Amino acid sequence: MSEAILSIRDLTVEIPTRHGILRPVDGISYDIGRGEVLGIVGESGAGKSMAGNAVIGLLSPPARIAKGEIHVGGTRIDHLKGDAMRRLRGKEIGMVFQDPLTSLNPLLRIGDQLTETILAHLDVSRSEAEKRAVAALDEVGIPGARERINSYPHEFSGGMRQRVVIALALCAEPSLIIADEPTTALDVSVQAQIIALLKSLCRNRGTAVMLITHDMGVIAEAADRVAVMYAGKLAELGPVRDVLTTPRHPYTDGLMGSTPLASRGKARLHQIPGAMPRLDALPSGCAFHPRCPYAQDKCSADPGPDLADGNGAACWFPLPHDAKVA
Amino acid sequence: MLAFIIQRIAQSALVLLVVGLVAFSMFSFVGDPIDNMLGQERTQADIDRLRGQLGLDQPFPVQYVKFLGNAVQGNFGISYRQGRPVADILLERAPATLELAAVSGFLAIFMGIGLGVFTAIRREGFAANAIMSLSLIGVSLPTFLIGILLIYLFSVELGWLPSFGRGETVRVGGWTTGFLTESGLKALILPSITLGLYQMTLIMRLVRSEMLEVLRQDYIRFARARGLRERAVNFRHALKNTLVPVITVTGLQLGSIIAFAIITETVFQWPGVGLLFINAIQFVDIPVMAAYLMLISVMFVGINLIVDLLYFSIDPRLRADRTKAH
Amino acid sequence: MTDRQLPPDMPIAVKDPSRLSIALQSDFFYTFKRSPVAIISFAVVVIMVLAAIFAPLVAPYNPFDPASLNLMNGFSRPMTPNAFTGDTFWLGTDDQGRDVFSTILYGMRISLFVGAAAVLFAMILGITLGLLAGYVGGWTETIIMRIADVQLTFPAILVAMLIFGIAKGVTPVEHRDQMAIWVLIIAIGLSDWVQFARVVRGATLVEKNKEYVQAARLIGRRSPAIMVRHILPNVLSPVLVIATISLALAIIAEATLSFLGVGAPPTQPSLGTLIRIGQGFLFSGEWWILLFPAATLLALALSVNLLGDWLRDALNPRLR
User: Fold this and answer.
1) Distance (Å) from the C-alpha of residue B282 to the closest C-alpha of chain C?
2) Are A77 and A57 in contact (CB under 8 A)?
3) Distance (Å) of CA C114 to CA A47, A101, B223, B262, C191
C-alpha cells in the first residue's frame, strides 16, 4: 500500500451510561490505502458501524471518541467539530448506508439531492452541478440518467436506489468511502451487482473503501484485506485470502465455520457456542475466551496481544495448532 | 388523482347534506316557526296561510329539499330576534370574524411551526425546555381565561390596548375592515393572540414531536453524511418531511379557529358571527343557529378539501400511488 | 376523513389484554411513587374532589341561603375586615356579600359533577357504540363510524354548544334553569363519545377474531355476553386514559360554556359561571371575585391534565 488514505490509531469510542462507561470500540488501529477495500466483519454489536460513524464524525451523543487518532489523507480529523467536520463529510469521506429505501429523502427529486451535495462541496455553478449530477447517475449505471434525474426515490427499485445512494456518496469525489452494510437490505440477485459497481468505481478513482458487513461472501468478493472485530476490538487483520483460508484467530475460524462459503469446501456448518457478551458485562482477559474451544488460563487473565505491525491475530494461541485441543 | 378528488368532494357533499338535515330538523322540531312569526292575535286562517306559504304542509323530504335549495341561494330565513334576514346579519358580521381568524391563524401557523422547529433542533437547550413547559400550561389554560388575563394585564393594569370591540373600521365595498386604522389594528392584537395561542401551542407540540421523529430517520443521517449544511438538513430535508403529517392537523386547527372565535369574540365583545351565534343560543334564535351551522360546515369542509389537495402537492409518493392506483 | 389519526401527542393505542392488571401490580405504583408531578397532581385532584363532595361541611357559609347573606358584606377584600360589619372573609366576597371561598367550593362541586357525569355518559355511550360497531359490523358499523367521522370534523365545544342550544329550544322556558345542568351533561357527553367508540371498536375488531372469542361463540355463549366478559377488560386501560384526559377537557368545556352564558345558570353557578360574574368586576378593581375562581379552575384542569398525561405514559410502555 503506497500511501494510507485512512489511518486509525488506537481509536476508542465511549458511551457513558448510568452503569458505567461502555466501550463499543476499544483501541482499534488500521490503515486503508488508495484504491484499497478493507472489509470489516463481525457480529452485530461488535462495533463495526460505530467505528465507521466515528470516522465520519456522526456518532450520536452521548457516544464520543475518547482516545486515539483518525487521519484522512494525512490530516488529523478526530478532533474536528461542527462546520470543519461538515466540510469533510461528502467531500473527503463519503458514506453509503444499509437501506436504500430509507436513506433517500422521499420528498426531493434525486437530481436535487445530487446537486445540493455537489454545490455544498464544489465551487461550481448550478448548471455545472446539474451536469455533474447526470454524469454521476450515468456512472453508477442508471439508464436514461438525463430523464431519471427528475424522478423521486420511490420511482426506483431497491437496487437502483442503492446505485443512487452510491452516486450521492461519490458525487463530490471523496477519497474514502464508508459502506455500512451496503447490500444487506437488497435482493440477493442485486447484491453482487452493487458490490461489483462499488468496487470498480473505487478502483478507477483510487478511492479507499471501508466495507462494513457481516457477510463473509461480500468480503470474499470485494475486499483486499479484512479486519475481524469482536466486542469492540480487532480480533484479526490481514489479506483477505489468508484470513479466509487460514484464519489464525479462533473467532475468525468459528465465523468461517458458520458461513456457507463454497471455497472452504466444508460439508457442515458449525456454530460458535454462546453469544457475544454484552458491552456492560465483558469477561476478563480476552473477550472471546468463554466461547473459545482453545482457551487456556492465560486467556481469562490477559487481554489478547496487540496485532503485530497491524497484521495477524490478537490471540495468545493463534491457529493452526499442531495438535488440536480436544 | 382525479378519482380521489371526486371521491373527497362527494364525501364533503355528504357531510354537508347531513349538516343540512340537522339544521333543517332544528327548524322543524325545535319550537314552532308559526308561533315565532305570528303574534298573539292570530287566527286559524292566518296560521294555515303562513303554513302554506312556508311550505310546512308539504311532506318532510320536500321541505328538506326546499330548505337546501334556499340555503344554497343564501336564504336562511328571518332571525326570530332581530326580525331581519339572517343572511344580511351574517354578511354584516362575517368580516370581523374572518379578519380575526386570519390574523390568529397566521400567528398560530408561523409561530407554531417556528417554535416547534426551534424546540426540536435545540432539544437540550434551556430556552426550548422552558417553552415546552410553558406550552403544557398553555394547553390546560382555557381560552377565555387567557383572554381575561390579557385584558387584565394590557387593558386594566397597563392601559395599552383596548379590551373590547373592533376599534374604528373602514368600509371597503361591502367589507368592513379594521386593518386600515390604528385603533382597528390595536383592537386586533389581544383577541388574535387569545384565539391563536392555543392552536399555536398545539401546532408547536405537534411540529416538535414530528420533527424529532424525522430527525431520527436514515435520510437525515445520510444528508449529514453528505456534508450538507446544518441549515439545509434541518429545513430543506427535515422540515419538509415534518410538514406532511402536520398539514392535516393544522388544517383542522384552522377550522377550529373559526369555531373557537365564538369564545374569543364573547370575551372581547368582538362583533363577529361567533358572538352572534352565542346570542342566538341564549335567545333560541333557531334560524341564526342553523345558518351559522351551515356556514361553518361549508368552511370546515372546504378547509378539509384544501388540506387534502395540499397533501398531494407536498408528497410525491401520494401523487404516484393514487394515479397508478396501487 | 377516516384515515386521520390523533396527533402523536396523544397516542392511544389498543394494548394487549392484561396490561392494566400487570401494571397495577408492579410498575404502575412504582412509577407513580417516582413521579413528583403525578403525586402532586393526584393530591390536588383528591383534595379538590373531597372539598367539593363535602362542600356543605367545609364551606364557612352557604352562599345560596339568602338568610345567611348580608348585602353589607358586599365587596369585602380578602383577609380584610369589612368596613361595615367587621366580618372577615378569606377570599373576600362578591357584590351580594357571598363568601368567595364558599361559592368556589360549591362551584367546584357543580363543575366536577358536570365533568364527571359527562365523561361517564360519553364513556358508556362510546363503549356501547364501539362494541356494537366492532362486533356487529356491516351497516351498523358504517353508520356509527360515519356519524363519528362527521362529528370529529367539528370541534367538540361547538357540538356541545349546538346540542345545548337545541335542548334549550326544546325545554319549556320555565324549566330551562333547572334542566340546564343536565342538558350541559348531555351536551358535553354527546360531544365526546367518539374517542371512546374508536378505541373500543379497534380493540373489538382485534379481539373478535381471536381464538378464545371464536371458541366462546362455538360453545354457544351469546354475543352480548362475549362482548362484555371478554372484550371489555381488554380495553380498560386505554379507556381509563381517555377518560382522564376527557375529564380535563370536559371541565374546561363546562367552564367555557358557563362562561359564555350557555351553561350552568347563575342560580347554580359553576366555576365558569363564577368567572363570568367576576369578569364584570375586573375593571372596577374587585379582582378577587374573578381571580380565585379562575385560579381554582386552572389548578383543577392542570392537575387532571397532568395526571392524564402521566397515566398515558405509565400505561403505555412504548413511550417509557
Assistant:
1) 6
2) yes
3) 59, 52, 53, 22, 14
pLDDT for the residue A251: 84
Interface test with B, best of C174, C246, C259 (most B CBs within 10 A): C259
Q: How far apart are CA B122 and CA B129, in angstroms?
A: 9
Q: Check if the beta carbon of residue B251 is closer than 8 Å to that of residue B303.
A: yes
Give the other-Cβ count within 10 Å of C37's Cβ.
13
Classify A89 in phi/psi space as left (phi over 0), alpha (psi -120 to 50) or beta. Answer: beta
Phi/psi of residue A248, nearest 5 degrees: -105, -25
Please give the Cα distance from C257 to C269 (Å, whole number). 12
- Shortest Cα distance, chain A CAs vs residue B224, angstroms: 8
Residue the block writes with cell 387534502: B308
Quickly count: other Cβ atoms within 10 Å of residue A267's Cβ.
4
What is B136-188 written as a DSSP string?
Answer: HHHHHS-HHHHHHHHIIIIIIIS--S-SSS--S-EEETTEEESTTSHHHHHHH
A220-237: per-residue pLDDT in tens? 888 889 988 888 888 888
Cell of C219: 360453545
Q: Is A179 helix (H, G, I), strand (E, B) or coil?
A: strand
Q: How many CB atoms lie within 10 A of CB C152?
A: 17
B64-105 confidence digits (pLDDT tens): 787 788 777 777 777 777 778 888 888 888 888 888 988 998
Instruction: Specify the length of chain C in residues.
Output: 320
- Which residues in chain A land under pLDDT 70? 1-2, 258-270, 308-310, 320-326
pLDDT at C12: 44
Cis check: omega of the bond before A320, within 30 degrees of 0: yes
C interface test, pick of B15, B132, B140 with most C CB neighbours within 10 Å: B140
Query: Under an 8 A CB cutoff, do A106 and B221 touch?
Result: no
- Using the 8-state DSSP alphabet, how is residue C54 labeled? T
Q: State the angle between helix axes of B286-314 and B2-29 in degrees (0 to 180), rounded to the nearest 10.
A: 170
Give pLDDT tens digits for B238-274: 888 888 778 777 777 777 788 888 889 988 888 888 8
| ipTM, two decimals | 0.83
Statement: residue B319 has pLDDT above 70: no
For the stretch C59-101, pLDDT in tens is: 777 777 766 666 666 666 766 666 666 666 667 777 776 778 8
Could you tell me which of B200, B101, B197, B201 has the C-alpha nearest to residue B146? B197
Instruction: Sheet with A225-230: list strands edge to edge.
Output: A93-96, A176-180, A208-212, A37-41, A225-230, A233-239, A312-313
Residues on chain C touching B278 (C-beta within 8 angstroms): 161, 260-262
- pLDDT at C127 exceeding the cut of 70: yes
What ranges in chain C are assigned the alpha helix state H?
Answer: 19-25, 27-34, 36-53, 55-58, 100-136, 138-153, 156-170, 176-190, 193-208, 211-218, 223-226, 236-260, 271-279, 288-314
Of the spans B49-53, B132-136, B216-220, C235-239, which averages the highest pLDDT? Answer: B216-220
pLDDT at res. B13: 84
**Single-letter amino acid, residue B217:** Q
Question: CB B281 to CB C168 under 8 A?
Answer: yes
Q: Does B306 touch chain C (CB under 8 A)?
A: no
CA dihedral for C227, C230, C236, C242, sign (positive or negative): negative
3-state secondary structure of C23: helix
Shortest CA gap B114–chain A (Å): 21
- A56 close to B (CB below 8 A): yes
Strand partners, A25: A13
Helix axes C236-260, C156-170, angle to 10 degrees: 60
The pLDDT assigned to B323 comes to 42
Identify the pLDDT of residue C267: 80
Minimal CA–CA distance to B249: which of C4, C62, C274?
Answer: C4
